[in-house]
């Protein structure tokens, strides 16, 4: 099968997200200029550079009470900071609660009964029990093709790792089983790893 996205795929559901899988989930916490807080998951998320460490996420829809975007991007526009929280399998249900299209005055930490902790470097909260959290200063917000598509890039200026996730000096993802996003309404978790050496190593 071949299709041009501009012509449609003719299938019951869009296969694009199912093709580009698995995708890590960036659970983005932000604080608005008025002090209100927001927590929302984004599966168009990844790390993009080592030095300095940088991450990106994309927001692809809008809410009536936020104009051309959603709460996360609106807050980052105002404050210039955000925190990426890693989602473990055990947090799948509370993460899903925070994915709702709640009004901007709804605090998802409270809605999902998630304990928050202050960030160290930026004025924002993080998910206290997350396996890891990355405190970020926004470097760019890029408007990309599509009415409500925004790419947010940030430099990581602080890193939190939960102590039980450190094994023999390494961050052990099997200790918490990262939750990943697949296509449609599907998710998966990482339960095994293997290593490969590059040629010449």
TrEMBL record:
Pfam family, one: Flavin_Reduct
SUPFAM superfamilies, per the entry: FMN-binding split barrel (SSF50475)
SMART domains assigned to the protein according to its UniProt record, in alphabetical order: Flavin_Reduct (SM00903)
Protein name in UniProt: Flavin reductase family protein
All copies of domain Flavin reductase like, residue ranges: 18-173
GO MF, one annotated term: FMN binding
């Amino acid at each position: 099968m071949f299709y041009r996205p501009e012509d449609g795929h003719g299938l019951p559901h869009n296969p694009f997200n199912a093709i580009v899988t698995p995708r890590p989930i960036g659970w983005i916490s932000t604080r608005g200029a008025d002090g209100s807080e927001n927590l929302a998951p984004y599966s168009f998320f990844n790390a993009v550079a080592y030095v300095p460490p940088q991450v990106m996420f994309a927001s692809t829809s809008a809410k009536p009470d936020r104009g051309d975007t959603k709460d996360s991007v609106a807050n980052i526009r105002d404050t210039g900071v955000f925190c990426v929280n890693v989602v473990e399998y055990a947090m799948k249900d509370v993460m899903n609660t925070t994915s709702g299209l709640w009004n901007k005055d709804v605090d998802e930490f409270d809605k999902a009964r998630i304990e928050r902790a202050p960030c160290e470097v930026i004025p924002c909260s993080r998910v206290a029990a997350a396996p890891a959290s990355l405190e970020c200063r926004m470097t760019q917000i890029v408007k990309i093709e599509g009415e409500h598509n925004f790419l947010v890039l940030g430099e990581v200026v602080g890193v939190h790792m939960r102590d039980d996730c450190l094994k023999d000096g390494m961050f052990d993802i099997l200790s918490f089983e990262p939750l990943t996003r697949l296509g449609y309404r599907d998710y998966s978790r990482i339960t095994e790893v293997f290593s490969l050496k590059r040629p010449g190593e």
